Amino acid sequence: MIIDIHTHTFPDAIAYKTIASMEEDIVRGQGIHVKCARIPTVKGLEDSTKKADIDLSVVCPVATNIRQPEKINRLSVELNEKREETRLFNFGAIHPDCENYKQIIDEIVAMDLKAIKIHPDYQNTFFDDEKYIRLMDYAAEKDLGIIVHAGEDVGLPETVHCTPERILNLWKHIQPEKLILAHMGGWKMWDEVEEKLLGLPFYLDTAVVLNPIFPFKLENEQFVRMVRKHGADRILFGTDSPWYDQTKAVNDFNNTDLTQEEKDKIFGKNANDLFDFFG
Ligand SMILES: [Zn+2]
């Protein structure tokens, strides 16, 4: 079973425009040209998921202002109704500036969206800010998962809002049970992640970290060492599609030196244990 815990889709009307501007941000941020690896719409992800033989792609929607969550979450429910056919599941969205965060979280729970995605860089808020602490505390109380972008963002490298230090600081206040730090705990900050974070009881996803298109990928040796140091039970397979071709991501992960048992856990078992996607 393969579950891709970290993917993105963009609304049909603005998908190409959004991707073009993100690609420009990557050139500005990293000095490299990275092309998005599939058609960026919902249909594009559905086709890519089936081609890669992935059982479920989980979409992590990011709200960039306080007006978006309600709309995004309603759409997530609609899309989740077609899950059997599309193999896509959408998490919920929330913004740290939402003063009605409790109400939004209650709705997300009622809509069975299973988790919320937060992105400190796109939401312009540090991860250990009181606004995140209060909403994550409430989400955890309601047994929701929380997936957070961690480390540098390819397009917004100037200020990193979710560093290992800030994660540690947040951890002093709250310890959500279902917290997933994307990109193996911090994109481009893996040495610091290794030194400070590994072994603490949160989950890490593998989104984009093995993608050889980026000059800053995790090498096999460090990747395997990090997985074992942290524990293969707490690592989830993710791609960050469309920023990594899903078929290639499955192959690249299969080509690491992890054992088959470790790969099976990471590919799907851990995510299913956490969120019960397939019962
Ligand atoms: Zn992402």
Automatic annotation (TrEMBL):
The keyword Lyase applies. Keywords: Hydrolase, Lyase. The keyword rRNA-binding does not apply. Residues 3-277 form the Amidohydrolase-related domain. It comes from the Bacteria. GO terms for biological process: secondary metabolic process. GO terms for cellular component: cytoplasm. GO terms for molecular function: carboxy-lyase activity; hydrolase activity. InterPro entries: ACMSD (IPR032465), Amidohydro-rel (IPR006680), Metal_Hydrolase (IPR032466). Pfam families: Amidohydro_2. This is Metal-dependent hydrolase. It comes from Eubacterium ventriosum.
